[in-house]
Design a protein that fits this description.
Radius of gyration: 19 Å
Order of helices and strands: HHHHHHH
Oligomer: single chain
Largest sheet: none
Structural class: mainly alpha
């Protein structure tokens, strides 16, 4: 079975899910919720140090956070496009050689699209890790404004959803909605993080960050 067939075909379930499949699905979602909760508790209970371990070559911590999050968002946009191609919603041609219509199944995506999707997703998450660490360890779970509170919540949710998606990909027969829903939630969380941090930084010059 090709990678495309596994990624797309394994998503569709036929018939009612078994009790074991339901338990696995619930376990996947609970694991993601546990990760988000653990991160939130640590960031909230930990006394912020206010220190900066590294800026990775940027002028300061805030510039590092803003630009790494922006780079991750650009990669997330590529994830959306490659996911649409993997699901036959973008590009590809039908069996007649013409561009596939809504009622016609598109050709399987080439192997490089799978590699691009996976490597791009991995890189996007890696770029957020220094940001997440500095946020939790140095700044803590902020609640002093609605923007900062939303940002803190989204930061915790991002990694919970990521863990849930990675586990869901290993389920034998996940519901057809699960992987796209988790992937979409990841992108939305990242967009929200960018809007409540990077965009604010770029438009306000870091004031009130």
């Amino acid at each position: 079975m090709t990678t495309d067939a596994r990624d797309r075909g394994a998503l569709a379930t036929t018939g009612a899910p078994s009790r074991g499949a339901t338990r696995a699905l619930l376990g996947t979602l609970v694991a993601g919720a546990a990760v988000s909760s653990a991160l939130g508790l640590y960031a909230r209970l930990h006394v912020p140090t206010g220190r900066t371990l590294t800026t990775l070559g940027f002028t300061d911590l805030l510039h590092m956070k803003a630009w790494l999050t922006t780079a991750a968002l650009v990669l997330a946009a590529g994830q959306v496009l490659s996911a649409l191609r993997l699901y036959g919603r973008l590009g590809g041609r039908g069996s007649s050689g013409q561009r596939a219509s809504s009622g016609q199944r598109a050709e399987p995506a080439p192997a490089w699209v799978h590699r691009l999707h996976r490597s791009g997703g991995a890189l996007a998450v890696l770029l957020t890790l220094p940001v997440a660490f500095q946020c939790a360890w140095s700044l803590g779970f902020g609640t002093y404004s609605v923007r900062v509170l939303v940002h803190s919540v989204l930061g915790c949710l991002l990694y919970g959803v990521f863990v849930a998606k990675m586990l869901a990909l290993r389920l034998r027969r996940p519901p057809g909605w699960l992987i796209p829903w988790l992937g979409g939630s990841l992108v939305l969380a990242l967009v929200g993080l960018w809007l409540t941090s990077s965009l604010w930084f770029f438009t306000h010059g870091g004031r009130g960050y």
